[in-house]
Specification:
Elements: E1 2-10, H1 19-34, E2 40-48, H2 49-59, E3 63-66, E4 69-76, H3 83-87, H4 89-101, E5 107-114, H5 117-128, E6 134-140, H6 147-152, H7 154-158, H8 160-173, E7 176-179, H9 182-191, E8 198-199, H10 214-224, E9 226-230, H11 239-252, E10 257-261, E11 267-268, E12 271-274, H12 281-286, E13 291-293, H13 301-309, H14 314-321, E14 326-329, H15 333-342, E15 345-351, E16 354-356, H16 359-362, H17 368-381, H18 387-404
Parallel strand pairs: 1-2, 1-5, 2-4, 5-6, 6-7, 7-8, 9-10, 10-12, 13-14, 14-15
Antiparallel strand pairs: 3-4, 11-12, 15-16
Helix pairs in contact: 4-5, 10-17
Length: 405
C-alpha cells in the first residue's frame, strides 16, 4: 500500500496567482520534485459549488494540472465567512469527506497539509471515516482565528468564542501546527500553555534568475531610484496610507519614481498602478529601492489585535526574500520589530495624518551608502523567508512525522 502527501484547501479560490497557489501549491510542486518520503504528492481543492462547476466547465474535468502538480477538485456548500457554514460545518465537511475518501483507498498512510481552518477540519472529517488509513494532519495556520470572521457581521461576533473554541480543538487534534508570527504564538500560549505551536515564516520567492553581484545590482537600483507598493488595496492595505507614504518618500528622495502593482486599480493619487503576472513580480521588486507595507484603515479591538500580533504580510516576506528593504508602518508590530532588530528598512509613524520617521534616518534618505547598508542587511535577514528555506523546514517536518507518529 502507498503513502501520499496531500495539500488540502477548502472553500477558497483556485485562481492561478492567488495566495493558495503562491503559498501552498507552489510549495507542493517543489516538494514533489524533491520528494523521497511519499509515493505520491498532489493537492485537493474543495471548492464552493459555483466555482467548482465553473472550473469543471473550463477544464472539462474535475482535475487541474498545474505544472507538475495534480489538483483534484470536489464541491462544497461551505463559504468561509458565512455563519451558516460554521454552524453546519460538521455535516458539510462529512459530505465532502465521503466524496474524497473514495479516491484515497489505495493509500495506507496520508499526510494532509492544511493551510486554513476549514482544511484542517476537513482532514479531521476524513480521518474519522477512514479507520484503515493512517492520517496525519499538519495545520498550517496563516494566522490565528481571522478577525475578519468576527468583523463580517453582527451575528458572527456572537459566535466568536465558538470559533475560538473550534480553533483550539483543531490545534489539539493536529499533529503539527504552524503559525506565521512568533508574537502571536507567544500571546496564544499565555492562554493555552500546553499546546505546541511551531513558527514557520510566510514564504517568499525563490532566487531570481540571473541575480547579479550585490554591488552591481545595487548600482542599478540606485540609478533607477524607484520604489513602490505591491499587493491588494483595501481595508487591510489602506489606499490613503499608501498614498501618504509614497508622497512623503517621493518628495524626500531626489529624482525618485514610484510604482504600484495591482490588477484592479489605475492609480492612487499621483502614483500609477500597473498589472504584472505573478511570475514577473519578483524581478520588479528586486529592482526597487524598497517596498512599502502601509498599514490598515480599520480601527477597534479586533483590527488592532490583527496588526499587532497576527499579521506578517506575505508581500513583506517576498520582498525580504529578495533582499529588498521594507518601509513599514509601526502599527504592524511583528514586521516593524523585525525591521528594527535587523536594520533592514525604515519604520514610520503616522501622526496627525503625516508620515514621521527618525530625524537621523530622514537625513540619510539621499545617501547611497545608507541604502546600500540596508540592502546588505536585508540580504542576510531575508534568507529565512526564501522559498528554498521554507521547503527545507517543511520536508524536515514531514520526515519527523514518519519517525514519531
Amino acid at each position: 500500500m502507498k503513502s501520499a502527501l496531500i495539500y488540502l484547501n477548502v472553500g477558497e479560490s483556485a485562481k492561478t496567482g492567488s495566495l493558495v497557489y503562491s503559498q501552498q501549491y507552489e510549495n507542493a510542486r517543489l516538494i514533489k520534485e524533491k520528494n523521497t518520503e511519499f509515493d505520491d504528492v498532489f493537492a485537493i481543492s474543495v471548492l464552493p459549488v459555483k466555482e467548482f462547476l465553473k472550473n469543471n466547465l473550463k477544464n472539462k474535468s474535475s482535475v487541474i494540472q498545474w505544472k507538475n502538480l495534480t489538483i483534484h477538485t470536489y464541491s462544497t456548500w461551505i463559504k468561509i465567512f458565512k455563519l451558516s457554514s460554521f454552524i453546519f460545518k460538521d455535516y458539510l465537511l462529512n459530505q465532502s469527506a465521503k466524496k474524497i475518501i473514495k479516491d484515497l483507498n489505495s493509500y495506507s498512510r496520508v499526510v494532509f497539509h492544511c493551510r486554513s481552518y476549514y482544511a484542517a477540519a476537513q482532514a479531521l472529517a476524513i480521518k474519522t471515516i477512514a479507520p484503515n488509513i493512517k492520517v496525519n494532519i499538519i495545520f498550517d495556520m496563516r494566522s490565528f482565528l481571522p478577525e475578519e470572521i468576527a468583523m463580517k457581521s453582527r451575528q458572527n461576533k456572537f459566535f466568536y468564542l465558538d470559533y475560538k473554541a473550534w480553533e483550539k480543538e483543531l490545534i489539539i487534534q493536529s499533529d503539527i501546527t504552524f503559525a506565521t508570527t512568533q508574537r502571536g504564538i507567544n500571546i496564544f500560549k499565555m492562554t493555552a500553555p500546553a499546546l505546541t505551536l511551531t513558527y514557520l515564516p510566510n514564504c517568499g520567492f525563490e532566487v531570481i534568475d540571473k541575480q547579479e553581484d550585490l554591488f552591481e545590482r545595487f548600482d542599478s537600483i540606485w540609478k533607477q531610484q524607484t520604489f513602490g507598493y505591491v499587493g491588494s488595496v483595501g481595508p487591510w492595505y489602506a489606499p490613503e496610507k499608501i498614498e501618504l507614504a509614497l508622497d512623503f518618500f517621493k518628495l524626500k528622495i531626489n529624482n525618485s519614481t514610484t510604482f504600484i502593482l495591482n490588477k484592479k486599480i489605475k492609480n492612487i493619487g499621483q502614483h500609477p498602478a500597473e498589472y504584472k503576472p505573478w511570475k514577473e513580480v519578483p524581478n520588479k521588486i528586486a529592482g526597487s529601492l524598497f517596498t512599502l507595507i502601509p498599514g490598515s484603515s480599520k480601527s477597534g479591538y479586533l483590527s488592532e489585535l490583527k496588526v499587532t500580533m497576527n499579521f506578517f504580510s506575505t508581500k513583506a516576506a517576498e520582498s525580504l526574500s529578495l533582499g529588498i528593504p521594507l518601509v513599514v508602518n509601526r502599527d504592524i508590530t511583528e514586521v516593524a520589530e523585525f525591521i528594527e532588530s535587523n536594520n533592514c528598512g525604515i519604520v514610520f509613524d503616522i501622526i496627525d495624518n503625516k508620515i514621521v520617521i527618525a530625524k537621523e534616518v530622514e537625513e540619510q534618505l539621499n545617501n547611497k551608502e545608507f541604502w546600500q547598508s540596508l540592502h546588505k542587511n536585508t540580504l542576510i535577514a531575508g534568507q529565512k523567508f526564501k522559498r528554498q528555506e521554507i521547503i527545507k523546514l517543511l520536508m524536515s517536518s514531514y520526515a519527523s512525522l514518519s519517525k514519531t507518529k
